[in-house]
Amino acid sequence: MRLGGEVDLSTTEAIGKPMTMLLPEGRPSEENDILEKIRRGERVEHFETVRIAKDGTRLNISVTISPVRNASGTIVGASKIARDVSVVRAAEAERGMGPPPFDKLRAW
Q1: Is 17 within the bounds of a domain?
Q2: What pTM, to 2 d.p., does this model score?
């Protein structure tokens, strides 16, 4: 699994492991809250959050999640796209700019 070239987990390290291994302390329910919304068929809006890279570095990421449905329309999983936006956020901080108003860092 690759996340912005920073989270570089081998198949052995990732398969069968919970996604919560990428969550920083203090956000234990974030992934479960998201999956619960997917199970209920609710839309999960694009959001920004923090994840932990293999080396322990905190990464600012932009996340998009969509339900995956089978032929009968039953939700059978979730598709997640996560983009590392750490460099963008660091550059904005350096210039004294915050993220655009539509980008909000979720604190679950």
Answers
A1: yes
A2: 0.61
